[in-house]
Amino acid sequence: MKQTTIWIACILFYCMLAISCTNSDDDVLLTNTDITQIIIQEDGWKVSWYWDKDKDETSDFSGYVFFFRNSGAFDAVRNGNTTSGTWQVASSSDGSQRLVLTSGSATKPLKDVDDDWIILNMMDDKIELKDDNDEHLEELFFERI
User: Was domain 28-144 assigned CATH 3.30.360.10?
Assistant: First the structure.
């Protein structure tokens, strides 16, 4: 009887362990449709964090509001001036999802968004992106307005 109880306890323990080790919803890759639905917000997005190499450059984006369109275009608006660019979702050979941004601007800070950013996290109110450059850290976070 003791051996049966021990075996049942072991089986229950391993079942609970297996269940607790399964992927959570946070680990599930978003589909391109999911990403599009999240990024296209009428309220727009602001840059809440921009780190390049060795310093915080978030303030360079002060006053900018980004509007991502269903067409794959985006507008960066600041003080009534609009700069248009493009965006698309891509998958990399390493399995990561990317947000490819092209501002069409040759000047900072908008040229700094030009990259194929790895999507670290994407929620209804926050987008966290990282460059895949191993030489230095570059991160770009958007927050819904």
Answer: no
